[in-house]
Write a structure and sequence with these properties.
It is built from 2 helices and no strands.
């Protein structure tokens, strides 16, 4: 037998355990409570996303009035209080109205 033949191939050289435990569930994981775990994760993402949205909406400040309707007009303080509205296009003085 060649000396390199003993180094080649896999098999019984490493004692793999028959029972594998890992925090993620082993080699082929299929936990019984995956639906509730997924629901909790999605709920957490939604709560954090809503908190970030609320913080962003409360601190939003526009320096120039938009020339057309934009979605943030539904929640921005400047539009709700009447401090800012849609800019009249006649104020643009020949500037292009399209953003494309």
């Amino acid at each position: 037998m060649r000396p390199s033949a003993r180094l080649m191939g896999g098999g019984a050289q490493y004692p793999y355990p028959k029972e594998v435990w890992t925090p993620s569930g082993g080699w082929w994981t299929n936990p019984h409570n995956w639906r509730s775990n997924t629901a909790y994760a999605l709920l957490g993402v939604a709560v954090v996303g809503y908190g970030i949205f609320k913080y962003s909406a409360e601190h939003e400040e526009r320096h120039n009035a938009p020339t057309r309707w934009i979605p943030s007009m539904m929640w921005a303080k400047q539009f709700k209080s009447g401090e800012m509205g849609i800019k009249d296009e006649s104020d643009l003085r020949g500037q292009p109205t399209s953003h494309h």
